């Protein structure tokens, strides 16, 4: 039976079992035509962020100069190769994330962190606006020690500004990336394919 309280994280023991087969995707960005999966050009760096519904979150990043491509998927949970329906059930532990491949000579990881903080409210816990559940939690999944340190430093700075503005504690999960699972093809660059689709991104640009 699936959880009724989607704001509670499952454990590794209670999470859905998932499957061995990875999600089949085209591997091509609908907007730019660039690759969103290997093989990729040399010299790119990677970042992974969760800031609510990944449809609107992905569009925030693909529009940035220096971003080569973006893809949406699932991270931070237990279930291998989950489906969207499984993630929405609250029984996988995953959050919806955007994988960003970028050229560090054009845009830095610190620049991406700045966009991350101002593009959502990182104080809401297991929700983002009207979207409620573990899959909407704020998260930064790091690829190395340098990213981990940069993410933690940027959170401290963001917390100071938010506290000064009367907001509560940041609830963003910051930890090394264990696994990234691509979401289904129809989710990739969803708002380019569906211009009138739901976005759900409520930024705090004036504060952070």
TrEMBL record:
<protein>
    <recommendedName>
        <fullName>Peptide methionine sulfoxide reductase MsrA</fullName>
        <ecNumber>1.8.4.11</ecNumber>
    </recommendedName>
</protein>
<dbReference type="Pfam" id="PF01625">
    <property type="entry name" value="PMSR"/>
</dbReference>
<dbReference type="GO" id="GO:0005737">
    <property type="term" value="C:cytoplasm"/>
</dbReference>
<dbReference type="InterPro" id="IPR002569">
    <property type="entry name" value="Met_Sox_Rdtase_MsrA_dom"/>
</dbReference>
<keyword id="KW-0560">Oxidoreductase</keyword>
<dbReference type="GO" id="GO:0033744">
    <property type="term" value="F:L-methionine:thioredoxin-disulfide S-oxidoreductase activity"/>
</dbReference>
<dbReference type="GO" id="GO:0034599">
    <property type="term" value="P:cellular response to oxidative stress"/>
</dbReference>
<dbReference type="GO" id="GO:0008113">
    <property type="term" value="F:peptide-methionine (S)-S-oxide reductase activity"/>
</dbReference>
<comment type="function">
    <text>Has an important function as a repair enzyme for proteins that have been inactivated by oxidation. Catalyzes the reversible oxidation-reduction of methionine sulfoxide in proteins to methionine.</text>
</comment>
<dbReference type="InterPro" id="IPR050162">
    <property type="entry name" value="MsrA_MetSO_reductase"/>
</dbReference>
<feature type="domain" description="Peptide methionine sulphoxide reductase MsrA">
    <location>
        <begin position="46"/>
        <end position="199"/>
    </location>
</feature>
<comment type="similarity">
    <text>Belongs to the MsrA Met sulfoxide reductase family.</text>
</comment>
<feature type="active site">
    <location>
        <position position="53"/>
    </location>
</feature>
<dbReference type="InterPro" id="IPR036509">
    <property type="entry name" value="Met_Sox_Rdtase_MsrA_sf"/>
</dbReference>
């Amino acid at each position: 039976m699936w959880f009724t309280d989607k704001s509670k994280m499952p454990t590794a023991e209670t999470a859905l079992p998932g499957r061995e087969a990875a999600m089949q995707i085209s591997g091509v960005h609908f907007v730019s035509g660039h690759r969103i999966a290997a093989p990729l050009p040399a010299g790119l760096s990677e970042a992974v962020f969760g800031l609510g519904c990944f449809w609107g979150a992905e569009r925030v990043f693909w529009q940035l100069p220096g971003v080569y491509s973006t893809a949406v998927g699932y991270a931070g949970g237990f279930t291998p190769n989950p489906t969207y329906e499984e993630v929405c059930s609250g029984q996988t532990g995953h959050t919806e994330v955007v994988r960003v491949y970028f050229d560090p000579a054009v845009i830095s990881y610190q620049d991406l962190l700045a966009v991350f903080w101002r593009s959502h409210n990182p104080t809401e816990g297991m929700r983002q606006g009207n979207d409620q559940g573990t899959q909407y939690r704020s998260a930064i999944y790091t690829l190395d020690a340098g990213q981990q340190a940069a993410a933690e430093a940027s959170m401290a700075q963001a917390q100071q500004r938010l506290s000064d503005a009367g907001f509560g504690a940041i609830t963003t999960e910051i930890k090394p990336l264990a696994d990234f699972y691509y979401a289904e093809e129809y989710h990739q660059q969803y708002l380019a394919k569906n211009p009138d689709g739901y976005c759900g991104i409520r930024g705090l640009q004036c504060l952070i």
